[in-house]
Design goal:
Keywords: Signal
Pfam family, one: Peripla_BP_4
Distance between the termini: 53 Å
Radius of gyration: 20 Å
Largest sheet: 6 strands, parallel
Family: Belongs to the bacterial solute-binding protein 2 family.
Structural class: alpha/beta
Shape: elongated
Subcellular location: Cell envelope
Bound molecules: beta-D-fucofuranose
Strand order of the largest sheet: 2-1-3-4-5-11
Number of helices: 10
GO molecular function: carbohydrate binding
Strand content: 15-25%
Order of helices and strands: EHEHEHEEHEHEHEHEHEHEEH
Length: 305
């Protein structure tokens, strides 16, 4: 009979903790704001933070988590780049007796489970974010909508869920047609390149839905290079709500943005403290997100990250 570990690793109450934060990449303002929030709050609490940046590689991120396990951190905060490969890292930590809290992205739910393999997921409801974009489009487009969807990183939970939420919301509306959906890896220049290529195949596009601000900003550059007016000839919608995108909403080049707040530090560490104190932690802790349109963008600029 093989002994199977049951339940989550224990963590006692301590004055200060040594925790790991395994970041997925640092190529955009959202990631930089998230890292800053994690570092600042650790400093404020007087906790030691072991920080790693996987540089956009799931394999490197698995190795980063293994190195945190070897350094015997008290707990690991993980922003899993992709749903499947990082489930294994979560299980390694658990087997080593180190609790894991997932931040902002999830792991495949058939491979690892909250309350058993990891403590909880803290982040946004990505399906709802996609739904909100779809609902806004239904209410605001005129005539036939011909949509290009710029997808986030293949295999990541926000890309899967932002697609599902959006497509479910618009699927029964015959005045909305999705022309093409392609991976832009949540990156600005990739978004620009993909948009440039898709524009050649679909010059009649009049809506762009980008899974994050960075790809929307890249798409705007491609649209302008093709002589189109983003925000007018082509409706542009995205998710994240960073300052640059909110400013573009105020300027009329982006029409609608759903926020996805990257400031995780205070909530992440408070959750770990509750866990250490033996409080019951829900399987998911969902961040509330606001949104920005032509009416609210200006006022929102002050607090956008
Ligand atoms: O939208 C994007 C980032 O996982 C929620 O990842 C996060 C997403 C965010 O790179 O900009």
């Amino acid at each position: 009979v093989v002994a199977v570990a049951q339940g989550l690793p224990k963590l006692g109450v301590k004055k200060t903790y040594k925790v790991g934060f395994a970041q997925t990449e640092s190529n955009n303002p959202w990631r930089i704001a998230q890292t800053k929030s994690m570092q600042e709050e650790a400093k404020r609490l007087g906790w030691q933070l072991v920080y790693t940046d996987a540089g956009g590689s799931a394999a490197k991120q698995v190795a980063d988590v293994n190195s945190m396990i070897a350094q015997k951190v008290d707990a690991i905060f993980l922003a899993p780049r992709e749903e499947k490969p990082l489930a294994a890292a979560v299980k390694n930590a658990r087997a080593a007796g180190i609790p894991v809290i997932l931040l902002d992205r999830n792991v495949d739910q058939s491979l690892a489970k909250a309350g058993t393999d990891y403590v909880t997921f803290i982040g946004s409801d990505f399906i709802q974010e996609g739904q909100r974009v779809g609902t806004w489009l239904k209410a605001n487009h005129k005539g036939q909508a011909r949509v290009i969807q710029l997808l986030g990183t293949t295999g990541s939970s926000p890309a899967n869920d932002r697609r599902k939420g959006f497509e479910d919301a618009v699927k029964s509306d015959t005045s909305i047609k999705i022309l093409a959906s392609q991976d832009g890896d949540f990156a600005r220049d990739k978004g620009r390149q993909v948009m440039q290529t898709l524009l050649q195949a679909h010059p009649d596009v009049n809506v762009v839905y980008a899974h994050n601000d960075e790809m929307a900003i890249g798409a705007i550059a491609a649209l302008e290079a093709a002589g189109k007016k983003p925000g007018k000839d082509v409706l542009v919608m995205s998710i994240d709500g960073g300052k640059e995108a909110v400013q573009l909403v105020a300027n009329g080049k982006i029409n609608y943005v759903v926020e996805c707040n990257p400031r995780f530090g205070p909530k992440a560490y408070a959750t770990l403290k509750d866990y250490a104190a033996g409080k019951k932690i829900p399987a998911k802790i969902i961040n509330p997100d606001r949104d920005y349109d032509a009416k609210t963008a200006k006022a929102g600029l002050a607090t956008a990250y």
